[in-house]
Structures are given as C-alpha cells and as structure tokens.
C-alpha cells in the first residue's frame, strides 16, 4: 500500500505516492522527476523542526520512518545548484518560444505568496522565527489565510468557500437557522460570495475538515480562540485584528524561501503558542487592530450607516446585504 508524501522543494510543492517497501532509489527517482535534482545531490529533511534523513539507497523507504501525509523537504547540495538553475533557465527559454494561444479566455491574476506585505512583528523561538504573513485585505482574508497555511496557495478561496457550504448542507442539525443566526439558505448564499467575511463558524468547519486545531489570537485582547481544542495532534496559528485574519508560519532561518516555512505545528509545542502570543502583543503595541464594537461601517449595498460588528451582522440577517466598508 502506497503512502502520500508532500514534497517541498526549490520549484514549489508536490504530492507524490510511493510504496514503503520499495527501495529508496525509487523515491529518489520520483523526487528527481518533480524537482530535477539528481539522486546523488538530494538532501532530505523531515519532522519538526526539520531534521536531515540518513539515506541508504538500497534500503526500503520504510527505513526512513516516513508516514502517510508527512512533509519531506528537498534541497540540492551546493554542487548541484548550478545545474538546477541552468535547467530551469532552459525551460523558461523554451516556454518563451511557444506560440501564444489568443483564443484562450483571460484569467484573473493569481495571488502569489511572495507578494505578501512585509511585517516586522516576527518573534524568535527555540525552533526558529515566527513570521507574520499578511494576506490581501479583500473580504476573503480568513479563506486566504487558511489556504496559505494548509495548501500553500491563496488561490483556493473559492474551493474553501464551497467546503463551508457543503459542511452546512450536510449537517442541518448542527448548522441550524438558530446557530447560524439566519435562514440556512441565506447563510449559504451569503458565504458563497467573494465579498463575504468568514468567522468562527468557518474556522470550526475548517478545523474538522483538516483535522487540525486552529488557534486564533485576537490582537486587541490577546485572547486565543481554539477551534478543535483537545481533538487533534497538530495546530495552526492565525492572527485576528478585529476585521482581518492573517497567517503565521515558522522559518528555520530569517531569509529562508517561503517554500521552506512550516505552517502546521504539534500541539505539544508550547514555544510556538508563546511566540504567537508575543506576536499579538507586538501588534497590539502598534495599535494594529480595530475595535469591532465601536468602528463605523457603511453597507455597500444600501448605504446605511452602522456602528460595530453587531449592527452589521443584524443588518445582514435582516436584509441579506453582506458587503460592508469601513468609514
């Protein structure tokens, strides 16, 4: 029976399958086909924090101690980096000679994690540096943060909204009109829109969907809301500013590429929780939050002025309007 492994490498992220009883050479060839790093130059790490693996090519893959779903970090030894760079440059040159297909429909620009806004609220921990990952302020920040953390991709927002819709539809007992604060059909219609914010309901759904605790630190109060607390072995970290969610990741060294950041942590790591709390404190000192009880909003649909999140939610329940802007 094969196991699935998530490869993180200089060219991106890949998911591969391998038979644990196959020789490690087979895994090396699979890695080569995804990364173009030859087996003799592959450096493999896994675990938290990442630790190098001792590779004996003739032994079975099971000797590496890898389990289904584990992350395998692949880097090239210094001697091979020039070869990889040359190969990628050749690919780019070939791609540039392809004939454009003008009949294809225009695509919306994809969000690139490398275009995240910088933040100086990083925190040093015994395991590395916790980094504040600022996602776009576009009403989908919760979904973008979840996509960044679990999928390393902020372009999965439409699919993540559908995950929420499916969960609500499949469980009418849990997600009743009373629980949602409005008719189920209205909630489903609203949360499907790109302009609609997500919140606690969505975080509880994603915790179950990914079988991972989601710890959300409130910047203004320092409170940590934990979804799936005590149910799972791993957790992820979000920062909540009152009207915006951002992600948190861990980098082994300050200048490591984003592909090598860790976003899922064992619940046993108190250092990570302490570091996230310190990060929230740093942001609070900079007033990087909005008091949702008192801030002024305007309904973008009808123009009505509203005071705070409570009035906004009430207005949404009464009218179905879900697009709000801050005055």
UniProtKB/TrEMBL annotation:
One of its GO terms (biological process) is protein deubiquitination. It is found in: Cytoplasm. This is Ubiquitin thioesterase OTU. Residues 130-251 form the OTU domain. It is an enzyme of class 3 (hydrolase). Keywords: Cytoplasm, Hydrolase, Metal-binding, Protease, Thiol protease, Ubl conjugation pathway, Zinc, Zinc-finger. GO terms for molecular function: cysteine-type deubiquitinase activity; zinc ion binding. Its main location: cytoplasm. Residues 109-119 have a biased composition (Basic and acidic residues). Its EC number is 3.4.19.12.
